Amino acid sequence: MRSNVIFFHAGCPVCIEAEQKVALALDQSKYTVEVVHLGQSKARVAEAESLGVKSVPALVMEGQPFHINFGAPLSALK
Amino acid sequence: MRSNVIFFHAGCPVCIEAEQKVALALDQSKYTVEVVHLGQSKARVAEAESLGVKSVPALVMEGQPFHINFGAPLSALK
Fold first, then answer.
1. Which candidate, B3, B5, B10, places its Cα nearest to that of B56?
2. Contact by Cβ (8 Å): A64, A26
3. How far apart are CA B32 and CA A43, in angstroms?
4. Which residues 6+ apart lie within 8 Å of A28 measured at CB?
5. A50 and A63 Cβ atoms separated by less than 8 Å
6. E strands of A2-63, at which residues?
7. pLDDT tens digits in sequence order for chain A, 78 residues long
8. Helix-strand-coil percent breakdown of chain A, rounded to 5?
9. Residues B12, B56: contact at Cβ < 8 Å?
């Protein structure tokens, strides 16, 4: 079974780079990557926060947040 | 041809997590991941720096640095 990975972003240039280079480079046979734009899906900001996400872009793999570079703090997206 | 990716780390817990979860999750059919421990290979600190790496752990994909969470600044490894 493939693991679920969530890539949270906000459409910023740093986010797009991380998505194109890192998130899409994950092994698709092992991971299902869901891409969530927090600027467009504000309802999911609380979910990101509860997963430990502090800024975007961030990958959450097996419940663990990995912040990739720095685009924007989560507080800017509320 | 597979792209080369370098994962720079320093053996810290944050680094190990990022290696196990993110670096090893990259599609091995598309990427060759080289793992460099900068604490053990101090000669490569200058290389990491020239690639734009500011802290570890970091992935360099196609010449672009992606800092994943924060373990240690590069300056601590010189």
1. B10
2. no
3. 38
4. B27
5. no
6. 3-9, 31-37, 55-61
7. 899 999 999 999 999 999 999 999 999 999 999 999 999 999 999 999 999 999 999 999 999 999 999 999 999 998
8. 30, 40, 25
9. yes
- CA distance, residue B58 to nearest chain A CA (Å): 9
Question: Of A68, A75, A73, which Cα lies nearest the Cα of A26?
Answer: A68
Say whether A69 and B69 touch across the interface (CB within 8 A).
no
Alpha-helical segments (H) within B22-65: 45-50
* CA–CA gap between residue A67 and residue B1 (Å, rounded): 29
Q: Number of helices (H) and strands (E) in chain A: give both, helices first.
A: 2, 4
For B9, the 3-state DSSP assignment is strand
Cβ–Cβ under 8 Å, residues B72 and B12: yes
> Which residue among B18, B26, B69 places its CB closest to the CB of A26?
B26
Which residues of A are less than 8 Å from B30 in CB distance? Answer: 25
ipTM of predicted assembly, 2 dp: 0.92
Residue appearing with tokens 């947040």 = A65
Other CB atoms within 10 Å distance of the CB of residue A57 = 29
